[in-house]
Amino acid sequence: MSAITHSLVRKASRFAARHTLQRWLPLQRQRAVVSFSFDDVALSACTTGAALLQEYQARATFFVCGGLENQMEQGQLCHHGAQLQQLHRDGHEVACHTYSHLNCELQPLSVLRPDWAKNRHYLDQLGIPLSGFAFPFGAYDLSSKYAAAQRFSYSRITGGGMQQGRADLHALRAQALYAGKTTEQEIRNLITEAVEQGAWLIFYSHEVSDQPGPWGTTPAQLRFALQTARDAGCDLLNIRDAIQHYRAVSA
C-alpha cells in the first residue's frame, strides 16, 4: 500500500469512527455537570490535584497506564499503586489509559487487546475495578473504537466540546485544561455554556504543578475551574458517576 493510499485509509477510518458505533446516553436538560479527568496520572495529580478536589468535595477520573508506575512521562514522575488505591477509597474513579500508553490508531488489535488486558490485571492486583477508558493522545480509528466498546463501559476522547442533549458513550468529548493554552475566560465561557445548555462538560489534564509542562495545569488554574463550576451551580462528578446520574434521571 502506498503512503498516499495508507493516509486515505486512515482518514476514512477516523471519519467512520466519529460517525458510527455510537451508543447514545440521553442527557435530560437540567443542572450542568462538570467532570475533571487526569491522563497518565502524574504523581502531582494524585497529591496536589486530589487535595484541591477534596476542598470542593469533587471527585475526578484518573486514567492510568500501569506501565508508567514510578516512571517519568513528559518530564513528570507518575503514580504508584498505593496512591491509586487511596484515590479509589476516596471515591475517585480509576480507569484505563492502556498499559503502555499506546496510540490506539496506530496499533493493531493484536497489540491493543493484550495491552488492555495487562492494564486490567494491574488494577485487579490493586483491588480496583475497571470501568472506563480514555484513548491516549485522543487517537482512535474504527477498529479501536469498536474493540474498546466491547471491553469498556465508556471511552473518552479529546478534541474539545461538550455533551449536549445526548452523549456517545463510545466517544465522550473532552476539553483540555492546560495552563499554557486554556485561559480563564475560556474556562468561564465553557462553564457558562454548559449551564445555559444543561450540558455535560469534561475537562482533562495531566500534572498539577506550579511549573507544569505543556499538557498540565497549575493548582491556581484547577482551583479557578472548580470554583467557577461550583459558583455556577454545576454538579461536580467524575465520569463514572456522571453516567450513573444521567441514567438515574432518565429512568
UniProtKB/TrEMBL annotation:
Residues 30-149 form the NodB homology domain. SUPFAM superfamilies: Glycoside hydrolase/deacetylase (SSF88713). InterPro entries: Glyco_hydro/deAcase_b/a-brl (IPR011330), NODB_dom (IPR002509), Polysacch_Deacetylase (IPR051398). Keywords: Signal. GO terms for biological process: carbohydrate metabolic process. It holds the Pfam family Polysacc_deac_1. GO terms for molecular function: hydrolase activity, acting on carbon-nitrogen (but not peptide) bonds. Gene3D superfamilies: Glycoside hydrolase/deacetylase. The keyword Flavoprotein does not apply. PANTHER family: CHITOOLIGOSACCHARIDE DEACETYLASE, PTHR34216. This is Polysaccharide deacetylase family protein.
